[in-house]
Amino acid sequence: ALTGGNPFYVGELLALGADEVPPSVADVVRARLQRHSPAGQRILAAAAVIGRPAPAALLASVSGVAAAAVDECVSSGTLVPVGHDFGFRHELTRRAVEEAVPHVQAEELHRIALLALEQADADAAELTHHALGAGDVDAILRHAPRAGRAAAAASAHREAIVQFRRALEHADRLT
User: Fold this and answer.
1) Which of 4, 31, 3 has the alpha carbon at shortest distance from 19?
2) Phi-psi group of 54: left, alpha or beta (phi > 0 → left; psi -120 to 50 → alpha; rest → beta)
3) What's the chain look like in SS3?
4) What does each of the 175 residues of the chain score in pLDDT, given as a tens digit?
């Protein structure tokens, strides 16, 4: 009755195995997060900030811990293999983990992800997302216009507007 029939919530409660029932999905996920080692928690924080399935090497690079910590997260069922990458079993889990990451740590993870993904020549919209999370205005000005042009070329006009607005918020820094 407490879960309202939400199968994800029921599954998370069963996986948690606690005597008390946390009041929300986010509380259940955060309680499960605490059962991971510090390295596992850091991998999960990096995975949440990256926001999409990623290779173990990228998760390790962004988190600053050994890629072997991914195995702990897979064993717990928090991360699942997605081809050769690893992602969250459910988007609600990813969001709950992301919300639990302290602000300064999230900025740091975004900054590291931005650097790693720039080297990998990632999508401009993804780079802009991480530039925003890192508060890196120079990177926003580098990537948001490219993301806007790519979105416009794909006829994703609303997305193009979002990306161009991100750059225009810092128009005072443009020549």
Assistant:
1) 31
2) beta
3) CCCCCCHHHHHHHHHHCCCCCCCCHHHHHHHHHCCCCHHHHHHHHHHHHHCCCECHHHHHHHHCCCCCHHHHHHHCCCEEEECCEEEECCHHHHHHHHHHCCHHHHHHHHHHHHHHHHHCCCCHHHHHHHHHHHCCHHHHHHHHHHHHHHHHHCCCHHHHHHHHHHHHCCHHHCC
4) 444 455 655 566 556 565 554 556 667 777 778 889 999 999 999 999 999 999 999 999 999 999 999 999 999 888 999 999 999 988 878 888 998 899 999 999 999 999 999 999 999 999 999 999 999 999 999 999 999 999 999 999 999 999 999 999 999 997 7
How far apart (Å, rounded) are the C-alpha atoms in residues 168 and 164? 6
Which phi and psi angles does 85 have, rounded to 5°? -105, 180
CA dihedral in degrees (48, 52, 53, 54; nearest 10)?
A: -80
